[in-house]
Amino acid sequence: MDDFEQILAGAGVRVSRRALDAAYEASGRELGRIWRSYRDVPVGRHVSVILEAAGRDLLRQIGPTETSALVEAYARPALLVPPAVDPGARAALEALAGRGYTIVLVSNTMRTPGATLRKLLDRFGLLGFFKHTTFSDEVGIRKPAPAIFALSLQAVGADAGTAVHVGDDPVLDVDGARGAGMRVIQVRTTSGQPTVGQRADAVIGSLADLPAAVAHLDVG
Questions:
Q1: pLDDT for 197 beyond 80
Q2: How many domains, the chain?
């Protein structure tokens, strides 16, 4: 929001930081309403919701240059403070790729858009392992909706019956992939994590255990 305040001021539009903070919180409620219906919107819509919540008809007071700058500022934080990567991720992906598996990424996004997440994956040396990446803000659908899994399978010419989904969430990942006709490996890092809905075909403690779990399922 500091960047938002500066960008808007550069366009001659003065909005207090307090108003922007309140608008950011309001945008979270609106996005949450959309996400609960298993839908999603592009990151540009996130920015529009913030400006609408801040009032004063801000969208009419700025041009495409400022709008692009706001979208870039909104998407930037994850690049400045990147998330941690599972230490077993790279070795697991290398092992699966070496066995000839086609690897696809299916991800719900939150505030950080798919375009930024690809940059992070590339920075960590992981992007090249994925033949296709599906992010909810780009396709308008969120897990656990079966359609987001179907789109991802279609992109690589795969069949749900021969695919396995890997994820940690018992509803978004386990129930979602089951609903799409796939088998599921759940990554459950804490023994106390509740299991909700359908059971996974296998449960592992970290991605380091993934190649062995996939071999055991014999999904080749």
A1: no
A2: 2
